[in-house]
Amino acid sequence: MLVAMGWSNERIAGALDVTQPTLRKHYFAELRLRDVARDRIDSEVLMKLWEGVQAGSVSAIRQFRAELDRNDLMEYGQTRKPRKAAPADKPVKVPKLGKKEQAELDARSPDAGSTLGELMARRQQGLNS
Q1: CA 20 to 30 Å from 7, out of 15, 76, 100, 106?
Q2: Domain that holds residue 56
Q3: Co-location of 57 and 78 in the same domain
Q4: 90 in any annotated domain
Q5: What is the pLDDT of residues 80-125, one digit of tens each?
Q6: Considering only 23-27, 54-58, 124-128, which range has the smallest mean pLDDT?
């Protein structure tokens, strides 16, 4: 299992409390299968999940589907799910005004709902024309 997890020979020997030559001498067959060790563990996990699916375990079914999706992505050479396409017509964000800009804008456009505001609006129109 340690080979499948990608551990180096030095690290495995340290975990088993043996020297590297002893590790190579007694576990040479397992070390030789370094390339397929991960696939073997993955296949055993999938078999256990499949047994759970056959037994009707909902969590096993959910996990098995996730593993199927992961396997399909690996089969097509992808490492993650493709992104969804961005919507074509995104609304353009209007930049927010700061306090000072908003106050200046409010000061330049008088309130037309009051008598004083209407008079100020007429006066500004007369000055601008």
Answers
A1: 76
A2: 41-83
A3: yes
A4: no
A5: 565 666 666 777 888 888 999 988 887 777 777 788 878 877 887 7
A6: 124-128
